[in-house]
């Protein structure tokens, strides 16, 4: 497996992963009918950097890193991670999160924050806790889950070493 910085050309291979996850409406705060063009802007153009995990030329996962806030909050980064359905359960989210923390330190970030983790996304919540993230806030009924309705969203944070 190899992690490398993504290019705009990679979005063709990222799109099926992004589309499936966004359309499910159970883990990301993106519109379930987000267009390919808007998704490319959100995942490739707006973040500071985007990476892909590939094996044998196939993209299995992707993540972005960007400042969580501008100005006085720019020392804290935010990341988003997506893994292809056929590659789940192989530790890719953990590998990407650990990689992103190293990249964040190189970019000068002092902390990482996830702003909107659906409490029903138990695998992600458990993984982030295992990797040292603490829940620093609960947003009551802030996430409108596609099948469970309004559920809490967590704000999770970690200082970087």
Q: What does this entry look like structurally?
A:
By secondary structure, the chain is an alpha+beta fold. It has one domain (2-159): Aminopeptidase. The chain is 30% helix and 37% strand. The protein is built from four helices and seven strands, in the order E-H-H-E-E-E-H-E-H-E-E. The chain has helices at 11-24, 36-45, 92-106, 122-130; strands at 2-5, 49-55, 58-67, 76-83, 111-118, 134-145, 149-159. Strands 1-2-3-4-5-7-6 form a seven-stranded mixed sheet, with helices on both faces. Helix 3 links the parallel strand 4 (76-83) and strand 5 (111-118). The mean pLDDT is 97.
User: What's the order of the H and E elements?
Assistant: EHHEEEHEHEE
CATH class reads Alpha Beta
Output the radius of gyration: 15 Å
Per DSSP, the total helix count is 4
CATH topology: Aminopeptidase
Please state the second-level CATH architecture.
3-Layer(aba) Sandwich
How many β-strand stretches? 7
Strand order of the largest sheet: 1-2-3-4-5-7-6
Outline the low-pLDDT stretches: none
The coarse overall form would be globular
Please report which band the strand proportion falls in: under 5%, 5-15%, 15-25%, 25-35%, 35-45% or over 45%. 35-45%
């Amino acid at each position: 497996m190899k992690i490398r910085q993504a290019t705009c050309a990679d979005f063709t291979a990222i799109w099926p992963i992004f589309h499936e996850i966004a359309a499910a409406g159970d883990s990301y705060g993106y519109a379930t009918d987000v267009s390919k063009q808007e998704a490319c802007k959100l995942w490739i153009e707006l973040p500071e950097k985007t990476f892909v995990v590939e094996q044998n030329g196939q993209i299995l996962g992707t993540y972005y890193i960007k400042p969580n806030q501008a100005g006085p909050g720019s020392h804290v980064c935010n990341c988003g991670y997506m893994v292809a359905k056929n590659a789940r359960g192989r530790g890719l989210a953990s590998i990407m999160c650990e990689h992103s923390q190293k990249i964040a330190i190189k970019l000068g970030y002092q902390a990482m924050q996830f702003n909107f983790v659906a409490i029903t996304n138990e695998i992600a919540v458990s993984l982030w806790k295992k990797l040292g993230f603490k829940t620093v806030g609960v947003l009551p009924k802030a996430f409108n889950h596609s099948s469970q309705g309004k559920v809490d969203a967590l704000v999770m944070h970690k200082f970087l070493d």
